[in-house]
Design goal:
The complex is a heterodimer of chains A (147) and B (83).
Chain A lengths: L1 E5 L5 H9 L7 E8 L9 E6 L3 H16 L4 E7 L1 E3 L4 E9 L2 H18 L2 E7 L2 E4 L4 H8 L3
Helix pairs in contact in A: 2-3, 3-4
Chain B lengths: L1 E4 L1 H7 L3 E3 L9 H9 L3 H6 L7 E4 L2 E3 L10 E5 L6
Parallel strand pairs in B: 1-5
Antiparallel strand pairs in B: 1-2, 3-4, 3-5
The chains are: A alpha+beta (147), B alpha+beta (83).
């Protein structure tokens, strides 16, 4: 069970291989990789700010909540901060379990909660300057369905 | 007491961190916000729409009614947009 907040890009394949190395109890892994969308040419770069300390704490709490709800054999959350370009990965969630149902559900839960409960903020660089991304009501609704 | 501001609130206030000595009588997060707003235009802009402002005491989410007793680090920030 690991939470990492880092500036460096990650390799989802390598992280998945590391999670399953020398194990035979895992029946499946559900993964989500979030990428920077370019929105055509509207977004030239994205800078992720966060609240060091609280971010890691909230991610660990959200992960613990997922483990209390589903049978997970392992779990990994990586969230990048700093400046990144369209097409680059931002976030990785891996959920390993004996059977697919728990892995799928936990992965979606973690992404939905992370979007509304972990202190990250996105700032876009656009052709007209920089702008802070507004929170979406649809994200609140997605998180609320797990309450 | 350490205060932290993030994202566009930090931009409005002009800095992301400060140490303050609170006057007597400020007992809740909401009262702290009122005191900050009176300190200048940047604070007033940052807290203009109080309904969207999130607060945390010692890195735990709290409401405006939360007491400040025991608080060493208080953060204010907009709704989060990670993921």
């Amino acid at each position: 069970m690991t939470v990492r907040v880092q500036e460096a890009p990650f390799d989802a394949g390598a992280e998945t291989a590391a999670l399953t190395a020398s194990r035979t109890d895992i029946g499946g892994i559900a993964s989500f990789v979030g990428l920077v969308r370019g929105e055509g040419d509207a977004v030239r770069a994205l800078t992720l700010e966060h609240y060091p300390g609280m971010t890691e704490r909230r991610l660990a709490e959200i992960e613990a909540e997922a483990r209390s709800r589903w049978e997970l054999l392992d779990c990994l959350i990586i969230h990048r901060v700093g400046r990144m370009l369209p097409g680059e990965p931002i976030v990785l969630v891996l959920c390993a379990s004996a059977h697919r149902g728990d892995a799928f559900a936990a992965c979606q839960f973690l992404m939905d909660w992370l979007k509304t409960d972990a202190p990250f903020w996105k700032q876009e660089e656009t052709p007209d300057g920089t702008r802070w991304v507004d929170a979406k009501e649809s994200d609140d609704a997605a998180a609320a369905k797990w309450k | 007491m350490k205060l932290l501001y993030f994202a566009w609130m930090k931009a409005a206030i002009g800095h992301g961190e400060e140490i303050v000595d609170l006057p007597e009588g400020i007992a809740t997060v909401g009262q702290l916000v009122e005191w900050l707003v009176a300190r200048g235009d940047g604070y007033a802009r940052a807290f203009r729409n109080i309904k969207v402002v999130r607060a945390a005491i010692n890195q735990q989410f709290v409401t405006l009614e939360a007491p400040l007793a025991g608080a060493t680090e208080i953060a204010f920030f907009p709704p989060v947009t990670g993921g």
